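_Per-residue structure_
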Amino acid sequence: MRTFLLAFLCLSSACALSSAQAAPPTGTLRLEREIPLPGVDGRIDHLAADVAGQHVFVAALGNGSVEIVDVAAGKRVAEIKGLKEPQGVAYVPANQAVYVAEGGDGTVRSFDSHTLKPLHEISLGEDADNLRYDAGRSQLLAGYGSGAIAVLGLDLARRANFALPAHPESFQFAADQQHLFVNLPDNRSVALIDLAAQTVNATWAHPSAAANFPMAVDGTIHRLFIPCRKPARLLAVNSDTGGITAWFPTVGDADDVFMDTAHRLVYVIGGEGFVDVVFVRAADAMVLRGRVPTAPGARTGLYVPEWNKLLVAVPRQGTTDARLLVFAVQP
């Protein structure tokens, strides 16, 4: 409670400053370092981490590459080039492979994370997008096309396929690891997939907001947190019923969101140039802990609880190189 009161007082003081004064970043994130990504042009999409190896894999969509960053050393150490609009990326500790979904040709490819040697590939048809690793079943899930999620073995052999009414964006596992929540922004809805029964059980419509791209899950309180772009607001959704329990105005152009369950914080990364740090109180009441500056167009990132860090990818702006911002979480 004392930490919350101090954060609230700091936020109130910052709001009282005149526009001529430069207020320092508020909230619970402290910028530790900036890691340059020279030569990387265009939009940057999603990230994945090798937690034990202290490496991050950055899907540089506009650059046609995956950038490999040693976070401990604070530098880029390698690149996988020649890709066609890499969007989703996943790292699998079991075989130490990195998987990349390419929107340009609908292909998912795997690489040895040490040698970067190509291992396997599969064509899904078109617009291969988000990837999610299912450790319990030793498989990957890949969203693609006009509406489908493919279930793939670690050798990228197809195991199953789930048809959906629209292209899937972010999708996340429920706490039981048996169900999958899927954002369908073109349908203004969320789908629920039962992985064990291999069925699409429900589609929850959310007419109050559109462009629901990112999603985070808090299984401890049975909530989905979904930032929407039209209008810019964060929805709290009951993951048992699909009902919206609360909403909160938030940063625009959000493309990634992460739940810090230990501290009841939601990190919303928006291309408007900020990370909103939202504290979730009882009964889903949401309070802004801080609006932390990043850069225009920086709308993707990765929260790594094992490192206690939030990473934000910043695209190149004029003569300023693309870079990875590393924030320490300080609740």
Remarks:
- The longest helix spans residues 2-16.
- The two ends are 11 Å apart (CA to CA).
- The longest strand covers residues 29-37.
